[in-house]
Amino acid sequence: MSGDNAAIVGSAVGDRLAVLSRRAFSFLLDWMTWGYVAYCVMYLLNHYWYTVHVDWWGTLTLPSWGWSVVVLATLELAVWSRSLGRSLGQRAIGVALQDAAGGRITAGRRLVRILLWHVSVPLFAAGFWRGGDPWHDRVAGMGLRPVSPDPERPGRRALATQWGIVALFLGVLTLWVGWLIIGINFQILARRAAQTGRIWGEMLRPDFRYFTTPDPVFSLRALSYSILDLAVVTVFMALTATILGSVIAFPLSFVGARNVMGFSPSGWAAYGIVRGFFNVFRSIETIIWGSIFAVWVGYGTTLAGILALTVHTIAALGKLYSEQVEGVSPGPLEAVWAAGGSRVQVVRHAVIPQVLPSFWAFTLYRWDINVRMSTVIALVGGGGIGDMLFYYKNQGDWPKVGAVVIVIVAIVWAMDYISGRLRERIA
Amino acid sequence: MGYPEGYLSERPPWTTGAGIQDALARRAIAARRYLGVFLLDAGALAILWILVSYVYAWYVLGTTAYTLVPWWAFAVGVVEGAAAWGSFGLSLGQRLLGRDLGPVKGREASSGARVWYLLLWHVLVLPGVGFLFDPPLHERLTGLGLRPRGTQGVAPAPWYRTSAGLFVAALLAVTCAAAVGVTVSWTALVRLFRQAGETVDFWRALVSPDTSILLDAGRDMIITVFMAVLSTLFAVVVAVPLSFLAARNLMRGPLGRPVYTVLRGAMSIIRSIEPIIWAIIFLVWVTALRSAFAGILALWVHSIADLVKLYAERLEAIDQGPIEAITATGAGRLSVLRYAIIPQIVNPYISFTLYRWDINIRMATVVGLVGGGGIGQRLINYIWGVQYRQAGTVMILIVILVWAIDYLSARLRAKLA
Amino acid sequence: MANPYLVVEHLTKVYERGQVLALRDLSFAVEKGEFLVVIGLSGSGKSTLLRCINRLIEPTRGRIWLDGVDLTRLSQARMRRVRRRIGMIFQQFNLVDRSTAIGNVLTGRLGYLPGWRALLGWFPKEDREKALANLERVGLRDKAYVRVDQLSGGQRQRVGIARALMQEPEILLADEPVSALDPATSHSIMQYLEQMNRQDGATVIASLHFLSLARRYGTRIIALKDGQLVFDGLPTAIDNAKFKEIYGEDAEEVEVR
Questions:
Q1: Is some CB atom of chain C closer than 8 A to the CB atom of B2?
Q2: Of A383, A380, A379, which is closest to residue A393 (Cα–Cα)?
Q3: Virtual CA dihedral for A395, A396, A399, A403, nearest 10 degrees?
Q4: How, if at all, do strands B144-148 and B99-103 pair?
Q5: Closest Cα of chain A to C100: distance in Å?
Q6: Of the candidates C18, C25, C107, which has its C-beta nearest B329's C-beta?
Q7: How far apart are the first and last CA of chain C?
Q8: Which of B153, B211, B373, C246 has its CA 20 to 30 A from that of B93?
C-alpha cells in the first residue's frame, strides 16, 4: 500500500522534473540566442562608435553597470519572445504555448503571462512543484505542451518559419561580426597577390638538388639529411606510432566498453577512468602533445613526435574501438556465457571475432591521419620532414620548400591510396 | 506493315567500329591484368630491397643508403625478380588480384613450360609485341595463362608455405627493424626517463591554472570559434557547386570526365597538404599582421578540398531510383536535379558540414600554433615562453571548447540522421 | 491498314562491351487499350524492355514505334515530350523518401511545367488540386502531407500510381509493381492498374513475376527467356508445358490469392 503510494509520488516527481527540465532547457536556449545577439550588437556598437579604442580582436568596452543591463535585457527578451510565441528553444524541443481549452490566445493574456512570470518564477520557484503547470501559466490559462505536426496541413516553406528567419538572421549577424573580428580583407589578398605570385612561381619550380644527396647546410644533431631520408623517417614515425598506439589501445578498449565491464562498482570505476582518459587525451591535438614531449625528450627528436602521435592514437583509437565493442551483437556473448565461459573467454571467442574487421579499418584510417600529422609535427619540435620544410621556409628558399611540399603530397597521397584500397578489401 | 527492314548488318565484327572497339577493349583488359600483377610484384620486391639495404646501411655501415648498387642493377634485379616470381610461384600480385598462372588445358604446369614462358616473356612482352594478340602471344605459345584462382574444395596452404606469405612476413620484420632503428635513438630514450622530472612542472601547472588570463584567453577563443564558423561557411559556398562537378555519376561524356578527373585530383592534392602548411603560405601572403585572416584562409582552402570529397562521395552513392522515376515523367535535367537529387543530399550535406565545423575548431587551434591567430597562438607563446601555468590554463580551456563543440555537433548530426 | 499503337522491332540491348545480351532481336506489337503482361524469370530482360520503351535505357539496335513515331530516332528534348504521355511505376517505388506524398505526386507534372517554375517549385493551383484528387482516388487523401518514408509498402506504391496518374498517361509501364508487396496488397495495386486500363483507356504494359496474377489481370501475355520472346498469346493459352518452357523444368506454379 505504502509502496504503491511511494511509486505514484515518485512517478509524479519524475513527471514534474521532466516538465521542469523541458522548460529550463528551452529557456536556456532562448537566453543563449539572445545573449549571442547582444554580444554581436555590442561588438558592432563598439566597432562603429569607438573605432579608436577597439583592437582588431574587439574589446567590448562597457561601463561597469553595463553588464547587469545586458544580462537583464537578454533575460527580458527571452521571456517576451517565449510568451509571444517566437521562441527558438520551444521550437527546438517541439513544444509550444497552447490554450488548455484549445481557444486562441489573445495578446492581453500573453501580457498577463509575461507580468506574472516576473513574480512567479524568480520569487516562487517552488511554484513549479504545485502541479503540471506553474502558477503563471495556470493564471494565464495556457501551458507549454508538445506539438505534433498536423498531417492534414501543408508544411510552410523553410524561410517562412521562425526557424528559417532566425537562422538567416543569426547567419548574417555571424558573418558580419566574424568579418570584423577576423579582419577579413580581400583587398590585401589581391594587392599582395603579385608578391606572393613570385613565391608560388618559385615553389612551382622545385629544387630537387638535395633529394637524395644530403644537404650539407641543413643538419639535425650533427647529421645531415636529404629530403628522401626525412621522408622515410616521417613514414616510419607514423608507422611506429600507429603500431604502438593500436597495440596499447586494443586491451584498453575492452576495459572502456560498458557491456564487457558489467555493472559492478569496480567495473564502473575502471570504465569511467579509461573512458575519461580517452576523452581528455583525445581533445588535446597531436601537435600540442608534440610541444609537451619536445620539452620532455628534446626539441627536434623523432621520439618526441612518435610519443605525441602515440598518445593521441591511443586515445582516439581506444574510443573508436570501445564503441565497436559496445556495438557487438549480444547473441554470441550469451552463447559463450551459457557454455560456462569466463569473462576472458567471452572476449576471446565472442567479442574479438565480431570486432576485428572494423578494428583493422580504424587502424588503417588512423595510420592515414598519423602520416598527415607526422609531416607537420616538426613545427613544435617533433622531427620528420617538417623540420626541413620549416628550415627552408625560414631561409626563404622557396624552390626547396616547393620540393619538400611535393614530396609531402606524394607521401600522403600514396599512403592514403594504399590504406583506402586495404580498407575496401577488409570491408 | 510499312516499317523499314534490314536494320541489322551481317558484316564481320572486325570491320565494324563496335567490333574493333570490342577487340581493343579485350586486349586492354588482358594487358591491364598482366601489368597489375607485374607492377605489384616489382613494387613489393623494390620495397623489400630498399628496406633491407637501408637497414644494413644504418646498422652496419652507419650511413643511409637505399640500394647499395647502381640504379640500373637495382632496376634489372627488380624486373627479373618479379618476372621469375610471377612465373615460378604464386606471387604477391597474383595473390592480391586473385589470379594464378596455370595451363589453359591439362592438369599441372611443368617447370619446362614455366621456363619457356619466362623466356618468351622477355622476347614478346618487354617490347610489347605480345599484347597485339588475344590472349597475349607468350601465353598462347606456352599454353599457360593467368586465370582466376580456383580454390573450391582445396585446403589453403599455411602462410609459411606460400611465397607471398613468407614475403609479407619478411617485409614486416624488416620494416619494424628499420622503423625502430631510424626513429628511436638511444639518447632520446634515456632522456625520456631521466628528464621525466622536467615535465612535473608542466603537470603541476595543469592543476593550478592561472585565472588572471581567462578574459584574454576567452577573447582568443571567440576568435577561434569565429575562424572555424566563417571558414566552414565560406567553404560550403564553394564546395557545394564544385561537388556536382566532382561526382563521377553526374559527370559523364567527353566533357564531363576530364573535369571530374582534374577536379578530384586537385582536391586530393590540396587535401594532402595540412592546414598548417597552408597557413604558412597565407601568412606570407597577407602578412603576419593579419594572422587570423591567414588562418581562416588556410582552413578555408583545406575545408573546400575535404568537403568536395565528402559531398561528391555522397552524391555518387545516391539512390538512382528517383532519378529514373522523375526522368520517366518527362522532366528536364534541371528538374531531375531539383526533385530527385537535391532532396536526397540536403541532410547528409548539412551533417558533413557540421562534422567539418567540428574538425575546423580543432584545426583552428592548431593553425594558431604557426601564428594563425586565436587561442593556439596564445598557447604556443606560453609554451615557448616557459609560462607553463598559463599554458596549462589555455589547454584546459581548449579541452572544454573542443569537448563542447564535439558534443553539440554530434547531437545535431544524430538529430539529422 | 491500321497501325498497331506500339510496335517493337528487332529490339536488341547489349551491356558492357558485348559481355551481356539483355534483349535479343525482340519484336511484337501492342494494340491501344490492351493490358499486356510480360513474364519471365529474373534477369530475362523484362526491366530492360520496359526501360527501352521510354528510353531510360538506350537500345543498342532496333526500333520502337509509338503511334507512328520512331522513338529511337528522337532527340532528347523531343523524347522528353513523349515521356510525358508514358507513365511508369517501379518495383522499388522510386519515391523521394524525404519528401511528402503530395510532393512526390506533384513531380508527375514536371514534364508540363516550364523549367524556371519547376526549379522554384511553383506548381499551378490546378495541379495541386489534381494531386489531392489523385491521392483521393488511391485512398491516401489523409496522408497527403506525411513524408513517404513513414508509409507502408502498399501505400508507397499507391503514391507511385498517383504520380503516374498526374501525367494522364496514354500508356503505363509497370516494372514488377507488386514484387516488393504481400499478396493482399498486390491485388489492390493490380486493381488500380486494371481501373486505369478500363476507365481511363490507358494501355498498360506490366511485368510480373507470378503467372496467376498475369492470368487474372492481363488481356495478353508475352514471355521472355534470356532476352528472347518465347511466348505471345492469350493468358489461357499458357499450359503446363509452356510454363515449364518459360520458367525451366524445376519450376512449380505458385498461386497468389
A1: yes
A2: A379
A3: 60
A4: antiparallel
A5: 9
A6: C107
A7: 42
A8: B153
